[in-house]
Design a protein that fits this description.
Helix content is 45%, strand content 17%. The protein is an alpha/beta fold. The two termini are 24 Å apart.
């Protein structure tokens, strides 16, 4: 397995956006669709899925995946670890899109807000990405 640096990943994202003439939110949608297709191939419905999202672009990916999984009939809950008032631009776009669905969203600001999880829950970790410092 090859591991790539954050800089390499940022460069590939920028290259794809530039060469294919798409926006970063479009690239995020593509990535979310690929993940959703993979997850759908692994998990039968109705599966309970909990998405834990940070407020950066990795969190935005998680919100998009949550929305797409819900569209496919999965039971989805989203937990946003809110350590600031606003997320990245693409995170905020996906948060708005998520608000137009029936997916419950919980903002967690401290460890007291962490939900109990069912042993049958499937977890999607969308907390930290290449922007972690």
């Amino acid at each position: 397995m090859k591991l790539f640096s954050a800089v390499q990943i940022w460069e590939w994202d920028a290259y794809t956006i530039r060469e294919q003439g798409i926006s970063s939110i479009d690239l995020m949608e593509r990535a979310a669709l690929a993940c959703t297709q993979c997850i759908s191939g692994l998990l039968a419905q109705p599966a309970e899925i909990c998405v834990f999202a940070g407020m950066g672009n990795n969190g935005g990916d998680g919100l998009a995946i949550a929305r797409m999984l819900r569209q496919r009939g999965y039971k989805v809950q989203v937990y946003i670890l809110a350590n600031k008032d606003n997320g990245s631009e693409d995170f905020e776009i996906n948060l708005k899109r998520l608000s137009e669905t029936d997916i419950p969203v919980t903002h967690i600001r401290n460890t007291d807000g962490f939900p109990p999880l069912s042993p049958s829950s499937h977890i999607i970790d969308a907390l930290f990405g290449t922007g972690l410092s």
